[in-house]
Specification:
Layout (H helix, E strand, L loop, with lengths): L4 E2 L8 H8 L11 E7 L4 E8 L10 H5 L2 E3 L2 E5 L5 E4 L1 H14 L7 H14 L12 E10 L12 E10 L7 E5 L17 H5 L2 H9 L4 E5 L7 E4 L2 E7 L3 E5 L9 H9 L6 E5 L3 H10 L2 E8 L3 E10 L2 E4 L8 H14 L10 E3 L2
Parallel strand pairs: 1-3, 9-10, 9-16, 13-14
Antiparallel strand pairs: 2-3, 2-8, 4-7, 5-6, 5-7, 6-18, 7-8, 10-11, 11-12, 12-13, 12-15, 15-16, 16-17
Helix pairs in contact: 3-4
Length: 358
C-alpha cells in the first residue's frame, strides 16, 4: 500500500459543526477536513501526503487553465448498520482514471496509489461518513490537473493529483423526461467521450439549459457523426428494458463513458431474469420500441444518483411516453434496490465489489 504522509489539520471541524452538516448534507457543498495530494515532476509520482483541506496556490500559467488537461473520478463511501464504512469498486475507478490520463496525455497514476489515497482519506475522515438513512454517503472526488506553468500546446511536465470528499444526501433520482437535442452532441468519434474529463461536462451545459427550457430533466445524447444513434443521457449512461426481458445499453464505442454503475447493473441483470445486451441503438428504434410497447422501462445510471427512472423522451417533433403515470417501473426499482443494498451491506455481494475501510 502506498503511504500518504499525514499532516493533520490544526483547525478541523468540531463534533458539533460536523453533526450540523451531517444533519442535512447538501451535495458537493461541504468538505471533510483533509485532502490527499501527490505530484508528478515529469519523471515520476512523489510527495504523497494528506494535509489540511484548503485552497492551493496555482500559477496563472498552469497548463490546466489554458489547455484543459484535467481528469476526475467519482465514488462513494457507505456506512453500514453496524457502523462500519465500506467502499464500492474503487479499483474500477482507478483503472478508468488511468485510461482517462492516457487519453489526455497525462501520466497515469498507479492503481495502488489511487486506491491507497482514497482508503487512507476515508479511514481518517470516517466520522464524516453519514448514516445510511436516506441513502446518505461520503462522495469522493479524485482528480488530476496539469500544474506546470507554461504557455504552449504540448503535454505538461508537471501534474497534481488530489482526493477531496463531501458528505452528501441522495442525488436526484426522481423520474425524468429526456430532451433529444437537435443542436448539440456530447462527444465525437476520436474525441474524449470515453475519458472522464471536465471539458466533456462544460460542453454539455448549453444542451442541459435547452432541455430545461423544454421542460425536461436531462439531455438524450446522440452520436456526433450521424446524429442517429443513442449514446448517453445527461451525465449518465442510458439503459432500457424490453418486454422480452433484455436490459439494453448502447455499446461502448469510444464516445461513451464506461460507467462503473453501468457495468454493475449489466452484471446484476441475470440475477433478475434479464439478458444484458450492449448494442448500437438508433433513435428510430428507441422511439418505435416505446410506441409499440417493446420497450417497457428506461433508466439512467451513474455514481451520484445510482439509477434515475426515465418516463419519456421529448424531441422537437413531439413526446414519447415510456410510462404515463410518471412512476418508475418495477424492474428499474428492483435493480436500483439490489445495487444499493449491496453498497450498504444489506444484500450479499456475490462479486466481491465492496471493501471495508473503517
Amino acid at each position: 500500500m502506498t503511504e500518504y504522509v499525514l499532516h493533520r489539520s490544526s483547525s478541523p471541524a468540531t463534533a458539533e459543526q460536523r453533526a450540523e452538516i451531517l444533519a442535512n448534507p447538501v451535495f458537493g457543498h461541504y468538505f471533510v477536513d483533509h485532502q490527499v495530494l501527490a505530484e508528478h515532476d515529469g519523471q515520476s509520482w512523489g510527495n504523497h501526503r494528506i494535509e489540511a483541506m484548503g485552497t492551493w496556490q496555482v500559477h496563472p500559467a498552469a497548463a490546466v487553465y489554458h489547455y484543459g488537461q484535467e481528469i476526475f473520478e467519482g465514488l462513494k463511501a457507505y456506512r453500514r448498520e453496524d457502523g462500519s464504512v465500506w467502499l464500492f469498486r474503487p479499483e474500477a475507478n482507478a483503472a478508468r482514471f488511468a485510461r482517462s490520463a492516457e487519453r489526455l496525455c497525462m501520466p497515469p497514476l498507479p492503481v495502488e496509489d489511487f486506491v491507497s489515497g482514497v482508503r487512507q482519506l476515508v479511514a481518517l475522515e470516517a466520522d464524516w461518513v453519514p448514516d445510511a438513512a436516506g441513502e446518505q454517503s461520503l462522495y469522493i472526488r479524485p482528480f488530476m490537473v496539469a500544474s506546470e506553468p507554461y504557455l504552449g500546446v504540448r503535454p505538461a511536465k508537471g501534474y497534481t493529483f488530489s482526493v477531496i470528499a463531501s458528505p452528501v444526501g441522495a442525488y436526484y433520482d426522481e423520474p425524468v423526461t429526456l430532451w433529444l437535442t437537435p443542436d448539440y452532441t456530447r462527444a465525437a468519434p476520436g474525441g474524449t467521450g470515453e475519458a472522464k474529463c471536465g471539458g466533456n461536462y462544460a460542453a454539455s451545459l448549453a444542451a442541459a439549459n435547452q432541455a430545461e427550457a423544454n421542460g425536461c430533466g436531462q439531455v438524450l445524447w446522440t452520436d456526433g457523426a450521424e446524429r442517429k444513434y443513442i449514446e448517453e443521457c445527461g451525465t449518465m449512461n442510458f439503459m432500457f428494458i424490453t418486454s422480452d426481458g433484455e436490459l439494453v445499453t448502447p455499446e461502448l464505442n469510444g464516445s461513451i463513458l464506461p460507467g462503473i454503475t453501468r457495468d454493475s447493473l449489466l452484471k446484476l441483470a441475470p440475477l433478475h431474469g434479464l439478458t444484458p445486451v450492449e448494442a448500437r441503438v438508433s433513435v428510430e428504434a428507441l422511439f418505435d420500441g416505446v410506441q409499440s410497447g417493446q420497450i417497457v422501462e428506461a433508466l439512467a445510471c451513474g455514481t451520484a444518483a445510482v439509477v434515475t427512472p426515465i418516463v419519456g423522451f421529448k424531441a422537437p417533433g413531439g413526446i414519447h411516453h415510456v410510462v404515463r403515470d410518471g412512476r418508475p417501473g418495477p424492474i428499474t426499482r428492483e435493480l436500483r434496490k439490489h445495487l444499493v443494498d449491496i453498497q450498504y451491506g444489506r444484500a450479499e455481494d456475490p462479486f466481491g465489489w465492496t471493501q471495508r475501510v473503517a
